[in-house]
Structure formats: structure tokens, C-alpha cells
Amino acid sequence: MSQATKIMHQSHHRSFLSRKYSWQVGYLVFLTLIFANLFCRPINAVVFSPKHFTLPNGMQVVIVTNRNAPVVSHMVWYEVGAADEPAGQSGLAHLLEHLMFKGTKLVPNGQFSKIVARNGGIDNAFTSHDYTAFFQMVSREKLELVMKLEADRMRNLALNEKQILLERDVVLEERATRTDNSPAAQLYEAKQATLYINHPYRNPIIGWRHEIKELSSKQLLQFYNRFYVPNNAILVVSGDVSIAELRPLAKKYYGVIPRGPKIIRKRLREPPHNAPRRVTLVSARAGQSQLTRTYIAPSYRTAQGIEAYALEILADILGGGTRSRLFRKLVINASIAASVMAYYDPNAYDFGEFNIFVSPRSGASLETLELAVNQEIQFILEQGVTKEEVKRSVRALVTSAVFARDSVSAAPNIIGRALTTGQTIADIEAWPERLQKVKVKDVLDAAKKVLRSRNSVTSILKSSKDG
Fold it and tell me: Are residues 173 and 63 in the same domain?
């Protein structure tokens, strides 16, 4: 299975795209791929060499100068997502993201994107469990315009009850289309609600239907006023602009916004897991049957030492491409799988996830595939991996990210996602050194810590047409 397909599975629950520009789904999948693999460069290399400063009101500003084209990418990231919603108000962060385009006193309802488009740019937004982000891509001379627009709606959003109710209906229809009418999405939602017993990562980013219906203007405004403040926001700009040019603009438009109260993330804690779990969905609308094994794993923020980097290498060795163990065993040698992959997503504030995905070839059963997967996991836990596999994995990760530095959009997406999930710029820039410190024993230790059946959910999608 291709790297792009792998990341589509990996990033499904981490960010929920909304509004228009459907082509950007694939584009952000590409950016996620870059994020996962960007930093595997020679040990002395730096990644983006960003410059950064903090405004007096607490807003962080990061700039990556890229003179390859006369364009800039402008992003504002808020350190709030679906996992920060009050209990019983799932979907609040995502609905507010929609409503951020409904206008201010200076910019009438529906005009934000039209102004950007008239000036030759594109814009969109997305919500995850851990962050909400808004971006524009414009020519360098239009940077000041989008900074003015974005700063305006940080604190001046003008909402009325009619707008809120109409947009709530839009989100309900979005849920009906993307989740309620999709067996794969329904299974994913059930799997996440089973994987996490208590932590809010169990809730869908778009929200549970019955809770979306009850979201009120009061709840939305309270959420907006608490979290949409400069000391909870990060501005990341990349492209044909210098820090000398950006600093006065940041001060002019963002620096005048008053600081809000200090925000401390407090989330429900996840209890120990004592048993493996399974969820199965059988549907006439299901296409290819598939099985996914998902393990709760540490994130970059919560991992100890270099275990997150060891898990990335483990995923690549196990199911990262045509030379991986599962591909060679199940697709080539046994001819029982149509596709296989393993992928690890550490880019979250609290928990990462380690996934193994398989789909059967015609005539093969999911039961046979699952047995083969279990055998390979057990073999790794007993025998570990080889030094040659670790070296090859690092080389493969390097190769997959060769275009990252030249992309104007890659830097703000990678940096924003890192900073909103507890990493620092130093962590980003230190990636090459940390990855290349991983040894064979580190990979085995990480595998033994994470690949425990009691920390897993096995989700199975079957077609009722298969009998």
C-alpha cells in the first residue's frame, strides 16, 4: 500500500476538515506524510531553521523564510480541539471552526473567503482533538491583508442565533454524509470509542449527533471567549518574507489584542486497560473487508527518551512498504493479503496510536490474516529487529521527505502541529539527531511496551455479501 494511503488511515481522527476545497484533503494527507518523515536527514542537518519571537500578549510567532516563490503561507493555530470540550458538548470545537467564517463588524458574513479569493489566495481550516487551525496561501504582497482579516476574527466574531442554528444543521448534514452513511467511518468511530475508556480522544471530532443537536450559542461563545485569545494562539508564516518584515505586521495586527486568562489543559485521565477488545461491523455497503489492530502508544510529548522515534522505525520495518516484513510475508510469500501496512502516529498531546492494517486477497479469510499478523508480532517481540533493518528504515524515511524544505506549506503545518501538541522548535530541529540515535534494542524495548494485547482494539469490517 502506498505511503499516501497509509497516512490517510493514520491521520483520520487527528484532524477533521470542513467547508470547501475538497482537493485539500489529499493535500493535507501529503503534508501529514511530510510531517511524519521530514526530519530524517543527516545527523548534523537542521530542519527549517525557523526564527521566532513572542508578542507581549503571549502570542507566539514563528517564521520560515523560503524564497523559492513570491508566495506566503499564513497560519494561526489555537491550542484547543475536540478533546478540550466540556463533557456532553462534543462537536463544539468543530462547529466553532465553521462559525469563524460567519463574519465580524468589519467583514460581513461569508465575505472572508471571498476576499481571500479575489486577491488570488486560498483559505481553509481544520479541527483535531488537540488544535484548530486556519490558513491562507497568498502572494507576498497580500500577507498584510490576511493578517488583518485573521486578527480581526480572533476576538471580534459576530454571531447571531440564526447563523448558529443554520451552521449546526450544516454540520449535522456533514456528519450524515461522512460518518452515518459510511460503514468504514462508523467502524472507525466505534473503534475509537472502544480504544479509549475515559479520555476524550474517544469522542468523534465532529461530535456525537445527539450532542451536536443540543449545542447552544451560549456554549459556543463561552468556548470562543475562553480559547480564542492570543496567549493560546501560534502564528506560523512561511514563504517569501523575512522576520524584519513580519515582526512589525505581527505587532500591528496581533500585538494589540488583549491577553486572555491563562489556560491550562485539564483532561480526563485514561485508566489502565486490562483486556483486549474487538469491534466488528457487517454491512452490505462495505467494500473490501479489512482488519485494523490499534494500540495506544505514547505521543512525542509523553514518550520517554527516544521511544517515539523507535516506534516510527518499528512501524516502517513491520509494514512501511514493499520491503517490510508484513508485505513480504502476507502479500508476496503467502499471497493472502491484498494490502498491508503499519503506521504510528505520535503527533498528539496525550496519546499516540500504533496501527496495523490488512485486507485479504480473494479467497483468503480475515481469520487467516489475523493469525499471520499475530505470529509476526510475536516474532518481533521474541527476536527483535536487525541492525540492517533499522538502517534501511532510516534511509527510507529520509527518501520520503526530500521535498519538504522546498514546500511553502509544509513548514507551517509541521511546526504548528508540533507546537500545539507539546513539542518545541528545538524538538523539531533535533529530529535528525534523535532518530539516528535509535538502536536495535530501543526498537525491541518500544515494541514490548506498546504491542500488548490488553492495550489494543481489533476492528473488523466485513461485507454482508460475503456471507
Answer: yes
Same domain for 245 and 375: no
At residue 77, φ and ψ (nearest 5 deg) are -110, 130
Number of domains in the chain: 2
**CB-based contacts of 433, cutoff 8 Å, min separation 6:** 43
pLDDT of residue 369: 96
Beta bridge partners, 104, equal: 157
The pLDDT tens digits for 415-430 are 999 999 999 999 988 8
CATH number of domain containing 122: 3.30.830.10
Q: Closest by alpha carbon to 189, among 178, 202, 199, 172?
A: 202
The sign of the CA dihedral 423, 428, 434, 438 is positive
SS (H, E, C) 103-127: CECCCCCCHHHHHHHHCCCEEEEEE
The candidate with the shortest Cα–Cα distance to 187, out of 372, 455, 463, is 463
263 domain residue, yes or no:
no
Grid cell 479489512 in the structure block, residue: 290
Range of the domain at 104: 3-253
What are phi and psi for residue 95, nearest 5 degrees?
A: -65, -40
- List the chain residues with pLDDT less than 50: 1-14, 16-44
| 3-state SS, one letter per residue, for the chain | CCHHHHHHHHCCCCCEECCCCCHHHHHHHHHHHHHHHCCCCCCCCCCCCCEEEECCCCCEEEEEECCCCCEEEEEEEECCCHHHCCCCCCCHHHHHHHHCCCCECCCCCCHHHHHHHHCCCEEEEEECCCCEEEEEEEEHHHHHHHHHHHHHHHHCECCCHHHHHHHHHHHHHHHHHHHHCCHHHHHHHHHHHHHCCCCHHHCCCCCCHHHHCCCCHHHHHHHHHHHCCHHHEEEEEEECCCHHHHHHHHHHHCCCCCCCCCCCCCCCCCCCCCCCEEEEEEECCCCCCEEEEEEEEECCCCCCCCHHHHHHHHHHHHHCCCCCHHHHHHHHHCCCEEEEEEEEECCCCCEEEEEEEEEECCCCCHHHHHHHHHHHHHHHHHHCCCHHHHHHHHHHHHHCCCCHHHCCCHHHHHHHHHHHCCCCHHHHHCHHHHHCCCCHHHHHHHHHHHCCHHHEEEEEEEEHHHC
* Residues labelled as active-site residues: 97
Whether 413 maps to a domain, the answer reads: yes
pLDDT tens digits for range 144-177 = 999 999 999 999 999 999 999 999 999 999 999 9
Task: With respect to residue 359, please indicate whether it lies within any of the assigned structural domains.
Answer: yes
List beta partners, residue 297: 352
Residues 459 and 388 in one domain: yes
- 121 and 68 in one domain? yes
> Does residue 266 lie in a domain region?
no
